[in-house]
Description:
Blueprint: H1 3-17, H2 23-31, E1 39-50, H3 53-56, H4 62-82, E2 86-90, E3 94-99, H5 108-134, E4 140-155, E5 160-165, H6 167-178, E6 184-187, H7 188-194, E7 198-206, E8 215-223, H8 244-260, E9 264-269, H9 276-284, E10 293-298, H10 309-319, H11 337-343, H12 349-356, H13 360-379, E11 384-389, H14 396-405, E12 414-420, E13 440-444, H15 450-460, H16 468-478, H17 482-494
Parallel strand pairs: 4-6, 9-12, 9-13, 10-11, 11-12
Antiparallel strand pairs: 1-3, 1-4, 2-3, 4-5, 6-8, 7-8
Amino acid sequence: MDLEQRLIAAEEAVARLQRYVPRVVAEGVLHDQERLRGERREVAVLFADAVNFTRLSASLDAESIFGLINDLLGRLVTCVHRYDGVVDKFTGDGLMAVFGAPLAHENDPELAVRAALDMQRAAAEFEPIARAKLGAPLQIRIGVHAGPAVAGILGTQEQAAYTVIGQTVNLAARLESLAHPGRVLVSARVYQQTRALFDFQSMGTISVKGVDRPVGVYEAVGSRAEPLPTRGVAGVETVLLGRDEELSRLRVLLSALVGDGYGGLVVVEGEAGLGKSRLVAEWLSGLGHGEVVVRRGRGLPYTQGVGYGVFRSLLQDALQTVPAGEVWDRRVSAPLRPFLQHMLGRLSAEEEARLRNLEPERVKELTVLALREWILGEASEHPLVLVLDDFHWADDLSREALQSIVSIAHNAPVLFCVITRPRPEAPLELKAPPAAAPSALYLKLEPLLPEESRALLSHLVALEDLPQSIVDAILERAQGIPFYIEEFVRMLIEKGLVGLQ
């Protein structure tokens, strides 16, 4: 078998395995089993279970029971995959899902809670089907906990599976068993990491076998209407270190926008946790009231398949600030307004049907024209800064739209600020405005220098209260990444090992 045939055979094997395990695990089994050995990971674990299903299904035959629970589980699995989670195992009439292994994200607890809330919505939609077959409602309960676990291949040469084990898994299962039907219970750790994004209700504390102190428990109610800032350590004023040069260059562009009406383009690039969004927030915090209007859009890992997801969130941000009685898209010509409404999911069925009669390329062209008109209309009344955060998560249509409309900055007071991580496989290629003004800036953020990392740590905690070995370990493991320094401090505070500075 030649090399090409072996490659084709390997791809086919991966495709078959993917029906049962994540792609990264399938590839590891075939090509790189060493990386799947047990390793300690920070994960979020979710358990979901159908309440009283065994009792309710007693009158059904085995085939009907199988079909019913398979339908429900299929809907729950879709929610897990939507947020890049992995179904670790099925538990009869429920499942265990993991977020953070084998693929880690910096917001795995958030992804787990979003999946849990979506699961409850999916279960509510499934309820009429269950009621018709069972004669009673079928509800699920969910528990979520985040923490360290050992992840890897567990089993024998004959049969093995990729899984996670440890106290984190046990506590998530315990929370699920305590949840009321139709509810989501999370641990205090998940609450602390996601309270800026979701509404919670405190449910007191519980005692858990193997855990020294009572564990705080919270019920996840839903997403916050207005998310709170997600960076930093609670109770400590945030500080920006090591970015003076970048701030100075950004302020030159802002002065050109406010003082002379020059548009521009800023790209802030860097790996996760380096403080890209924090830098932009500091930059824009110096604006005087009414000088500039700032609109914010954001890419999200679970909306990559949603067309124009970044620009949809940008329009939604604008909608939240429109004065009562004012038509937000009044500056857009009437024939183009439906394309913005379509982006927001606000068209009637009849209007959607009319759009489907158009060629897809024509719809894309008119959608971009509508966005262009809206931005120019906004900029005709005041200088405009459009912050497009987490653009590495942008869907293809958002990327194409930005490439088409960034030229607006050539002749209008619009400053595009794109915040992204490096994507070598899909580089961001944008045409900068003319060089007549200081109107284009590319900033690549690097990790903090050792002295800057130490200064940030000392801002958060009193270093004299920590053994030097702990200080050195935090700085070494953080590798100059501000987010990691903050997370290590948060962990020490949660464990009661240090107090705030």
